[in-house]
Amino acid sequence: MRKTHWYKWFGIVLISAAIFSPGPGWSAAGETDAQTPERLVTMAVQYPAVSVAPDEDVSMDVIFYNKGRRDENVAVWIENRPEQWKARIKTYRYTVGSLHVPAESQKTLTFEAHPPQDIPDGDYTFEIAAETADGFFEMRQPIQVTIERMPAAARDAKGVKLTTSYPVIRGPSDAKFEFSVDVESELEQDAVFDLFAKGPEGWEINFKPAYESKYISSLRLKAGQNQSVDVEVKPAINAQAGKFPIQIRVSSGEAKTEAELMVILTGTYALDVGTASGLLSLDARQGKTASVSIYVENTGSAPNNNISFMSFKPENWTVEFEPEKIEGLPPGEIEQVDVRITPDKDALVGDYSVSLQIEGEKSKKPVEFRVSVKASSAWAWVGIAIIVLVIILLTIMFRKLGRR
């Protein structure tokens, strides 16, 4: 009987091992973290729209961001320029036709434009173009320069001078705008100048010293002194897209001057991404494609163009999008996108994280999926066959031992 009990316990151990042993692809959840993309290069200009006097030059930064894991050589040139204007892209010293941008860093160049003599008031558009050495990334950025003569009130000002290089700034409705203005005293004695501002109802407008955060309402200047002041403008919450003038005035006794600043609101930029069911998970098998549909909604008040998709996935996995890009999405519109995720054929069984990034013209939205990799059904049949075989062997042993 002792021998018979020993064989029974041996059989139980074999059955338990066959049932509860992990499959060949077992892995802990979240084994692979999201990775920085291999390549991602973007370009932006400091001020897409500016207003200057007819005799004033335009100068602003052109910024290149390399968010990828490899260095990039980027060619850059001025694709379009108005007739008779002189323009170039340069460093502090040289005119530049290309630049090297190391991985995960940014580089800045300067765009300069010189208007011709006797140029009439109006809007003039430039376009800066750039592309990587292999043409994989192509970038375009328009710049609108408005030529605007100084109003009579500013020309007739006495005792104080008020100037600004960029009186027109464009941006989304939920942004905060900062203008830099120079106040120059033309008096022969020290004086305190009061600062006033008037804008649309519900807007917040404050003066503050350059590079400081405190707000001020007056400014003390010595005779002939010049000092920079920032004008901080915050639109009302419900502000719609359009042009909004900001009147500013500086005065001290009989000395006074006025200037007009302009805020051009382009609306808000926002994207929402999700699934119809609200679930952000799916099941997949090694080497087999699993599909999920996501929706991309423009929840802003401005059109969102050139919406692209990126993925951060475990090594040797593939993620495909259909369509690969959304050319334009009006406010309130929804576009469906099919996402096809294929795990590596040697992926271990377990849960993995696949992150998607939906990036629009001036907004982006991340979303993360939990992908559960299941073992192939063939292994289930193998497991069943092992269990059946163990039972048959135990039955034969029990019969033989029972006869003894």
How is the secondary structure organized here?
Elements: H1 2-20, E1 41-45, E2 49-52, E3 58-66, E4 72-80, E5 86-90, E6 98-101, E7 105-114, E8 122-132, E9 138-147, H2 152-155, E10 160-164, E11 168-171, E12 177-185, E13 191-198, E14 204-209, E15 218-221, E16 226-234, E17 242-252, E18 255-265, E19 271-274, E20 281-285, E21 290-298, E22 304-312, E23 318-322, E24 325-329, E25 334-342, E26 350-359, E27 364-374, H3 377-403
Parallel strand pairs: 2-9, 11-18, 20-27
Antiparallel strand pairs: 1-3, 3-7, 4-6, 4-8, 5-7, 8-9, 10-12, 12-16, 13-15, 13-17, 14-16, 17-18, 19-21, 21-25, 22-24, 22-26, 23-25, 26-27
Helix pairs in contact: 1-3
Report on this structure:
The chain has 404 residues and is mainly β. The chain has three domains: 38-149, Immunoglobulins (Immunoglobulin-like), CATH 2.60.40.10; 151-267, Immunoglobulins (Immunoglobulin-like); 271-374, Immunoglobulins (Immunoglobulin-like, Sandwich). It has three helices and 27 strands. The chain has helices at residues 2-20, 152-155, 377-403, and strands spanning 41-45, 49-52, 58-66, 72-80, 86-90, 98-101, 105-114, 122-132, 138-147, 160-164, 168-171, 177-185, 191-198, 204-209, 218-221, 226-234, 242-252, 255-265, 271-274, 281-285, 290-298, 304-312, 318-322, 325-329, 334-342, 350-359, 364-374. The strands form six sheets. Strands 2-9-8-4-6 form a five-stranded mixed sheet, with no helix packed on it. β17 and β18 (255-265) form a beta hairpin. The longest helix has 27 residues, at 377-403. The chain is elongated and about 120 Å long. The protein starts with a helix and ends with a helix.
